[in-house]
Design a protein that fits this description.
The protein is an alpha+beta fold. It has two domains: about 100 residues, no CATH class; about 170 residues, YojJ-like (1. The protein has a seven-stranded mixed β-sheet with strand order 2-4-3-1-5-6-7, sandwiched between helices. A hairpin with a 2-residue loop joins strand 6 and strand 7. Helix 6 crosses helix 8.
């Protein structure tokens, strides 16, 4: 065994090492790119099918293996169609020379600054009953939604948010999408929820917020134009009648610790808000 290993290592040259490093780097960056899109879920599904196919072949399950192999052939043909948005976006990024651009993460100081700006804007808009819809990107990338709006790419500030949502201005209709501490785009289109059990008093903004939270892990902040009520949609649930302090705590918990799945680390009152069925 050792002799075979030494013989294998003796055949590896400097070009082979460079080849391996380049491929590994490319796959790593590709993983980072897919990680922030819904395509990551599709890739996981494909990997499960591949593993299942190998297991069936090893167990000599001939009929299942044959069906899976034929299915894989169809899937490989369908992949360019399924991943069309991601492939188009990757080619555009190659053309712009930023395929492997890494998005920056917020530190605690930047997060607090962003939350304070959002809180000030939310308080002012709630008091004056200015409707607003703000989407906070988390693990699931929202590039497709950003592309439906008008590019902004500006630092989050209270003045910027309030100016965007001033009634009868060009960008007030639709949502703004916030990534980190930057407003990526305004006037973005969001999917409406298909839940028929919602209260009739909920308007289009609230239904769009719920729909967005159903299709991603984003946090969606809504200010009602009719009542000034502040709400947050998460995982298809709508938390209503929040205060500005509630908003800051909920967003801080969700954005600063996006991978935390347990509610045990949250304050008790916050667990009640998120866990409660507030429609």
């Amino acid at each position: 065994m050792i002799v075979q290993l030494q013989g294998l290592l003796a055949t590896i040259g400097i070009l082979d090492i460079i080849d391996i490093v380049v491929v590994a780097y490319f796959l790593y960056r590709l993983f980072l790119m897919l990680k922030n899109t819904r395509a990551a879920t599709l890739v996981k599904g494909l990997l499960v099918l591949v593993v299942f196919t190998i297991a069936c072949r090893w167990l000599n399950l001939h009929v299942i293996s044959w069906l899976l192999e034929k299915s894989m052939t169809v899937i490989m043909v369908a992949l360019p169609v399924v991943f069309q948005p991601e492939l188009r976006r990757a080619l555009e990024q190659i053309g712009r020379g930023n395929l492997f651009h890494k998005s920056s993460e917020l530190d605690e100081q930047e997060l607090e600054s962003m939350l304070e700006s959002v809180a000030l804007a939310t308080k002012a808009m709630s008091k004056s009953k200015v409707g607003a819809l703000m989407v906070f990107e988390r693990n699931t990338g929202l590039v497709e939604r950003i592309e439906t709006g008008v590019p902004i790419d500006g630092i989050v500030s209270s003045g910027l948010i309030q100016n965007i949502f001033v009634k009868d201005t060009p960008l007030h209709d639709g949502a703004i999408i916030i990534r980190g501490n930057r407003v990526m785009a305004a006037c973005c289109l969001l999917p409406l929820t298909e839940n028929r059990n919602l209260s009739q008093e909920l308007g289009t903004r609230h239904r769009a917020a719920i729909g967005m939270s159903e299709q991603s892990d984003a946090m969606v902040l809504v200010v009602s134009e009719e009542t000034g009520t502040i709400s947050i949609a998460r995982n298809g649930d709508l938390m209503r009648y929040l205060t500005v302090n509630d908003v800051k705590e909920i967003l801080r918990t969700a954005i600063f610790r996006p991978h935390t799945s347990s509610k045990d680390s949250m304050p008790e009152w916050l667990r009640g808000l998120i866990g409660g069925d507030k429609k």
